Amino acid sequence: MPSDRQIPISVNDGVPIVMSDERAETSRAFQMLADLYDEERKIVEAERETESAEFEPKSRRRFAWR
After folding, report:
1. What is the distance between the alpha carbons of residues 42 and 46, in angstroms, rounded to a whole number?
2. 32-46 burial code (b ≥16 CB/10 A, e <16)
3. CA pair distance 57, 63, nearest whole angstrom
4. Least packed by Cβ within 10 Å: which of 9, 26, 28, 47?
5. Using CA atoms, how far apart are residues 60 and 34, in angstroms rounded to an integer?
6. Could you tell me the residue ranges of all domains in the chain?
């Protein structure tokens, strides 16, 4: 993460650097990190949905009379 003089100022003001100066190098780095995290989260959720669909029982009946 690049260092920026605006970070302590934004912390003291209570405004995230990403919102106070969107064009700053630090803001872009934080946004890239958030995008990577979001992409990874979507992949994990998709894998979980696939796994749960594979192991879902096809029939709800446990005991069937023949």
Report:
1. 6
2. eeeeeeeeeeeeeee
3. 13
4. 47
5. 41
6. 6-52
